[in-house]
């Protein structure tokens, strides 16, 4: 909804608690005088009365959306109300419901009414909807939830037998996220990885680790509380560093035996407790390939759902040109080597996860993986100027 539409609907003045809007004519003039673009999607504001005039501040769509999600996480009643007009992504044993068209997958959403009908049809209690977790909302504040139809269900044996009937009813299939991830658009991929990570965390944190009592999820699923001792548990991610090492002209790529055949990636490793990101990078590079990092530069980060939730922290690092002899730690890696700029640029151009490279050439992680971004950055700008490690 755009600014102008919103004001036209609300006539002259004020409404909605602290989201008070002021006289349309005044605001329109004021905004025009101040050079605001009325077509911007700013449509919500906060106003307060100062002496004889109103002060107001428009909030961006992003800010109002963020505040709305915060409210839903904090207030169970507001969250329950949001389910009435919300939409649900469905999972079965952590596999999302997807519909396939050509090479692409799409994630359908269902209304509360459709979900209630589905559960009733398959003999499940509609109370189960309270197991759903909040994963986001649209710009119009339609809240999005995810529900696993099998996890934590008292009738889980029954439900798993009904999987194919459910798929027929829902006109889709419950597909392993690892298989589908790279054929989803970025928005669906991000929502589904968040949803899966959150559903998995709830499934694994049903009991308090101190009292052994069942913990209780809040409506949004942003935490669990032990009713007996009030300990609050929040969903966790493990920090992982991923580093593309360069010697100035070549970059170092490696593979684990668990990787798909022919795929090489940057070096990755979990941070140890008490370590900074910089220390973790130095240790992992030394541990895995026997090299000492000289400089490093942060690039970007990414949530990664496999095998459990990780926060991938991506960096570029360099080693001294004269100290490039690799000693592969075979307990961690199957192979590692230096690759020239041309070799990597060619692999990047040809990279296609559906038709993995033939005739012995190597291939790189797909676009959605942060390893791919890191490698692409290096190919585009091999001589960035990192900081001392
Ligand atoms: N998104 C991306 O582009 C990429 C993501 N990754 C992810 O990075 C992660 C870490 O890479 P690895 O080389 O496997 O790590 P790693 O080099 O630390 O080795 C894994 C080993 O570390 C130990 N470990 C320590 N803390 C752990 C924890 N919190 N969880 C699990 N194991 C722990 C275990 O013994 C495990 O076998 C992997 O889960 C992988 O999925 C890896 C490459 C690319
Ligand atoms: Mg590793």
TrEMBL record:
InterPro entries: NADH_PPase-like_N, NudC-like_C, NUDIX_hydrolase-like_dom_sf, NUDIX_hydrolase_CS, NUDIX_hydrolase_dom, Znr_NADH_PPase. Its cofactor is Mn(2+); Mg(2+). It is found in: Mitochondrion. It catalyses: NADPH + H2O = reduced beta-nicotinamide D-ribonucleotide + adenosine 2',5'-bisphosphate + 2 H(+); NAD(+) + H2O = beta-nicotinamide D-ribonucleotide + AMP + 2 H(+); NADH + H2O = reduced beta-nicotinamide D-ribonucleotide + AMP + 2 H(+). Its EC number is 3.6.1.22. NAD(P)H pyrophosphatase that hydrolyzes NADH into NMNH and AMP, and NADPH into NMNH and 2',5'-ADP. Has a marked preference for the reduced pyridine nucleotides. Does not show activity toward NAD-capped RNAs; the NAD-cap is an atypical cap present at the 5'-end of some RNAs. The lineage of its organism: Eukaryota, Metazoa, Chordata, Craniata, Vertebrata. Keywords: Hydrolase, Magnesium, Manganese, Metal-binding, Mitochondrion, NAD, NADP, Transit peptide. One of its GO terms (molecular function) is metal ion binding. Transmembrane segments: none annotated. GO terms for cellular component: mitochondrion. The keyword Transit peptide applies. PANTHER family: NAD(P)H PYROPHOSPHATASE NUDT13, MITOCHONDRIAL, NUCLEOSIDE DIPHOSPHATE-LINKED MOIETY X MOTIF 13. Its main location: mitochondrion. NCBIfam families: PRK00241.1 (NF001299). CDD domains: NUDIX_NADH_pyrophosphatase_Nudt13. Residues 235-361 form the Nudix hydrolase domain. The gene is NUDT13. This is NAD(P)H pyrophosphatase NUDT13, mitochondrial. Pfam families: NUDIX, NUDIX-like, Zn_ribbon_NUD. It comes from Ursus americanus (American black bear).
């Amino acid at each position: 909804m755009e600014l102008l539409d919103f004001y036209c609907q609300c006539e002259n003045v004020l409404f909605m608690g602290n989201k008070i809007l002021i006289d349309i004519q005044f605001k329109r003039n004021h905004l025009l005088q101040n050079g605001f673009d009325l077509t911007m999607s700013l449509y919500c504001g906060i106003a307060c009365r100062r002496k004889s005039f109103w002060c107001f501040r428009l909030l961006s769509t992003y800010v109002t959306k963020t505040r709305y999600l915060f409210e839903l996480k904090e207030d169970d009643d507001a969250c329950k109300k949001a389910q009435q007009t919300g939409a649900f992504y469905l999972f079965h044993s952590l596999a999302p419901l997807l519909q396939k068209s050509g090479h692409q997958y799409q994630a359908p959403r269902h209304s509360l009414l459709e979900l209630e009908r589905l559960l009733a049809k398959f003999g499940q209690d509609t109370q189960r909807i309270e197991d759903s977790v909040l994963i986001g909302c649209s710009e119009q504040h339609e809240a999005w939830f995810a529900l696993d139809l099998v996890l934590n269900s008292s009738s889980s044996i029954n439900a798993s037998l009904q999987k194919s009937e459910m798929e027929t009813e829902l006109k889709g299939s419950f597909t392993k996220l690892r298989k589908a991830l790279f054929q989803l658009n970025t928005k669906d991929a991000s929502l589904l990885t968040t949803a899966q990570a959150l559903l998995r965390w709830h499934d694994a944190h049903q009991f308090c680790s101190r009292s052994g009592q069942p913990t209780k999820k809040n409506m949004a699923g942003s935490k669990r509380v032990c009713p007996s001792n009030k300990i609050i548990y929040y969903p966790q991610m493990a920090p992982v560093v991923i580093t593309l090492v360069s010697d100035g002209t070549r970059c170092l790529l490696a593979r684990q035996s668990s990787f798909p055949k022919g795929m090489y990636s940057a070096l990755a490793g979990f941070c140890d407790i008490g370590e900074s990101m910089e220390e973790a990078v130095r240790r992992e590079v030394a541990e895995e390939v026997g090299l000492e990092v000289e400089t490093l530069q942060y690039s970007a980060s990414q949530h990664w759902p496999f095998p459990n939730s990780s926060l991938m922290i991506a960096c570029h690092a360099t080693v001294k040109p004269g100290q490039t002899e690799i000693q592969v730690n075979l307990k961690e890696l199957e192979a590692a080597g230096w690759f020239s700029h041309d070799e990597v640029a060619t692999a990047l151009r040809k990279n296609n996860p559906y038709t993995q490279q033939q005739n012995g050439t190597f291939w790189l992680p797909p676009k959605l993986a942060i390893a791919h971004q890191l490698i692409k950055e290096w190919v585009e700008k091999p001589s960035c100027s990192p900081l001392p490690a």
